[in-house]
Write a structure and sequence with these properties.
globular; two-stranded parallel ribbon; alpha+beta
């Protein structure tokens, strides 16, 4: 009988890498076992309690879409993911597209729940801000970067 393990997103990412390396280095460890081992992991939900503007419905979607916790260059809480359905994600998250969007890279924002979604070739980030003041600062910096890069 196997026992379910619980992990954070970042721990799960590391665990997947370890198991993938094991597939290549241990001839007795199969892809089938790799998948079975991953199926025994429960990923802990994100603790978004420091972000009171995030609605319950949005929190569930964020938990489903993003696979890694991080911080941005300014120390703001950020999540990472990968998608092939960026427009659907932007709409589901209640975001508006920012100016200077193109098919390669863009940003979108939700000024009610205080977060900024960025996309570049499938890689996505979601930077979440605890209040309006920090969100506005983050938005202005993001807008300026995209304006300089794509105007």
């Amino acid at each position: 009988m196997t026992m379910t393990m619980t992990m954070t997103r970042n721990e799960y990412e590391e665990y997947m890498k370890e198991l993938a390396n094991k597939v290549y280095s241990d001839s007795n460890y199969s892809i089938k076992q790799y998948k079975a081992d991953l199926d025994e992991v429960e990923i802990l939900p994100l603790d978004l309690s420091a972000y009171p503007a995030i609605k319950e419905k949005t929190a569930k979607l964020i938990n489903a879409l993003f696979t890694e916790e991080d911080t941005d260059r300014n120390g703001n809480y950020m999540l990472r993911g990968f998608t092939r359905q960026e427009s659907a994600e932007v709409n589901a998250l209640g975001c508006n597209f920012g100016d200077y969007a193109n098919c390669y890279s863009f940003f979108a924002y939700n000024s009610i729940e205080y977060f900024i979604y960025t996309y570049c070739e499938g890689d996505t980030t979601l930077t979440i801000y605890p209040d309006a003041e920090s969100y506005i600062k983050g938005y202005e910096e993001t807008y300026a970067w995209y304006k300089e890069a794509y105007a």
